Amino acid sequence: MGNGGSSSIVIGSNSQRTYSCSSSAPCGCSTKSATMTKIVGGEAAGLQTWGWAILLRTPSSLCGGSIISASWILTAAHCVRGFLANQITVYAGSNIKYTGSQILKVSAIIIHPNYFSSTYVNDIALLKLLNPLNMTDPWVSAICLPSVSSAILSAGEWPPPGATVVAVGWGRLSEGGSSPSILQQVTVQTIDYRSSTCARIVNDWSVQFCASSPGKDTCQGDSGGPLMAFTSSKQWILVGVTSTGIGCARPNYAGIYTRIAAYQSWVSLNTIGQFTNPTSSTLA
Questions:
Q1: Percent of the chain scored above 90 by pLDDT?
Q2: Which domains, and CATH codes, for the chain?
Q3: Fewest CB atoms less than 10 Å from the CB: which of 70, 110, 264, 278?
Q4: Of residues 7, 71, 112, 123, which has the active-site annotation?
């Protein structure tokens, strides 16, 4: 795969776009601002800028995840399948790998019942924390979940193709390359599912979507982490979960993400509504 006062996000270099949000928002706003540049590959994230991004450690893998409430983490099914809840450790509130202002254990794993490991369809899971997070911690915050009508979802892709989205994670810096110790961030664009870089690798576009930019992608170790968009209500919203892909940043293949908007009712049912929607889910 910066900083400031009232939690503003700066994306781009030549044509910089600044997104400011209120750090008192109930979701989708961290303590400090983030600055994103258009460098190839990605860059280190600023401190206290993505407070919902957590690191998951299992006996055999490293993944990401997102805090959606004090007791719930949203991640990818393939990250936690085959493990017991007590084998997973959650590191929250830090940009440095395997550290956290809060380190927690998991009491329950809920994997989507229709997850297919061969196609990564329904690659989504929820983790119930053994003890809730202290959400007054300035290093920790919750990301908003989308509230998108079934009419919009059935009419076409959401997020729509060409949307600017941001991924964060501790995954490899390049295909087969080294893994960073500091959280990385990268800006990519959503891709039409009919595009040549997406159509041959997505199995079900209603629940999966593609995103990429030249030389930019998520990679091994980023799985389960957030793909985020900024809304017109000035909040960050979880639009995707990093799922799979062929290689990393290959020009002929986009990255594949789980389409969170397709799982609104599933998340609500399993968490008993323990998450927050933004004031608006319209993308900025």
A1: 69
A2: 53-142+267-271 (2.40.10.10), 150-261 (2.40.10.10)
A3: 70
A4: 123
